[in-house]
Fold this sequence. Notes:
mainly alpha, 3 domains
Amino acid sequence: MSGSTETEREIDAELRAKIAENKDKAHKYQQSFTGKENISRLQSDGKPVKTAEGLKIGKTALKDSTGYKVFRVMNTVILIIISAATLYPFLYLVAQSFSSEDAIVKGIVSIFPIGFNLTTYKSVLMDGDFIKFYGNTIFYSVLGTFLSLTLSTFLAYPLSKQSLKANRFLTPFIIFTMYFAAGLIPTYVLMLNLGLKNSIWGFIFPGLISTYYILLMKSFFVGIPKELEEAGELDGLSKVGVLFRVVLPLSKPIIATMALFYMVGYWNNWFNAFLYLKREQWPVAYYLRTIIQGASTTADPQHVSEQSMQIAANIKSCAMVLMVVPIICLYPIVQKYYVQGMMLGGVKE
């Protein structure tokens, strides 16, 4: 027994020695390619061969083709032209709103103000009604956007579920409303019968839900993996809990996109104010429209002061600048979500 035990020990020792030797060889072989030490070998011609650590990979020697260079130049030029054409009208409006009446009449205003003045802005901003109407617009935009997002989410999420049998009837019905509307007169009569005349809800309700935005949100919700929702249900969440604690946190891009769309719609809406609101309820868009109309229909110029003539000349530019600046300030905040939301909500594999 003792002899067999010694034999086993010897065999075990030999195996350990071979394993250690093989590990040492493997380590040396690895270092011959990746080790930090610069190990050199001799070729048949006597020149040293550096390991991979000693080699330096330079830039590729391939050069861009002539056609690709021309494409890059043309692409750059076209993008610059498009950017300039997009930016120029806004810069022109800003310059005109700060320019004098004489410069505007002569048509010498470009992208820089000529005869700088603040007469128009002072006349508009110092009017107490302007601040009140601007507050109305902010209130309508925030309230309307919140309600629109809430209702759109509660409608789009069920539509994204193929297991809901009612979708085969609901989806075509919703799409039908996108192409066939009731019209202005039936809508106005309906709002009167609902008692929404001279009410802020008469301004908000007609644009509360957009069919196109519903379809965008539906496409986005369809792309959310079902496994995430199933995991939430296994953790004990209800359907509403899954929506609020799983789906909505993953839907920031489409929510930000829809929020921007709805807010711009409420911000620029003046026609509903014309139909359903009284003066103290006006948004700033309709108020500025009345100013523009008043400036455009000025009576006998001989009985109008120079200051009034100056206001009449650039009031349109001033009104446009005051309306668009808040949206321009808001867009950079949601821009990254806007692009992602449009791509994910509008493209489906």
